[in-house]
């Protein structure tokens, strides 16, 4: 009987392979799709399904795991791992009760500040209307003056 070959370890998903290859390449400006695919092919010894690779990269950008810089991609340093979440404390219930009145005060102050901010804007808009009407009258007078001079020149040219 022929001996059975040992099953090859299952390959990781494209998302995992992309993240590992970007981390391994460690390029300052980010890694291109071509560089990522070359690294994945060399590291995992598989044929690359390019549409699946590109789709995994795009999903990583949408999820916030990757950051796109022009045609290159970097790992998002700002996104924290979910395993490092802080444990919940019992004192958070009391802090929520204290935070609610502050929110009500903020709403009251913002509405009063909005009313105060609207009053000066109305005064400013009235003054701008006055200046705009005077400037249009001056512009109309300037346009009328050259028309008269051009008609005199035409009359002088005809003689």
From TrEMBL:
Residues 116-129, 139-159 have a biased composition (Basic residues). SUPFAM superfamilies: Winged helix' DNA-binding domain (SSF46785). GO terms for biological process: chromosome condensation; negative regulation of DNA recombination; nucleosome assembly. The keyword Protease does not apply. One of its GO terms (molecular function) is double-stranded DNA binding. PROSITE patterns: H15 (PS51504). Keywords: Chromosome, DNA-binding, Nucleus. Residues 10-77 form the H15 domain. It is found in: Chromosome; Nucleus. Histones H1 are necessary for the condensation of nucleosome chains into higher-order structures. This is H15 domain-containing protein.
């Amino acid at each position: 009987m022929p001996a059975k070959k040992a099953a090859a370890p299952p390959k990781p998903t494209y998302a995992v392979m992309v993240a590992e290859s970007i981390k391994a390449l460690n390029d300052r400006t980010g890694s291109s799709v071509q560089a990522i695919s070359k690294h994945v092919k060399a590291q995992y010894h598989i044929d690359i399904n390019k549409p699946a690779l590109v789709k995994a990269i795009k999903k990583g950008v949408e999820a916030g795991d990757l950051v796109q810089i022009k045609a290159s991609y970097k790992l998002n340093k700002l996104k924290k791992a979910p395993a490092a979440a802080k444990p919940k404390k019992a004192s958070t219930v009391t802090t929520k009760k204290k935070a609610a009145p502050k929110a009500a005060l903020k709403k009251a102050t913002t509405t009063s500040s909005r009313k105060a901010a609207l009053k000066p804007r109305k005064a400013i808009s009235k003054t701008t209307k006055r200046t705009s009407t005077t400037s249009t009258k001056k512009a109309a007078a300037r346009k009328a003056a050259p028309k008269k001079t051009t008609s005199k020149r035409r009359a002088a040219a005809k003689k």
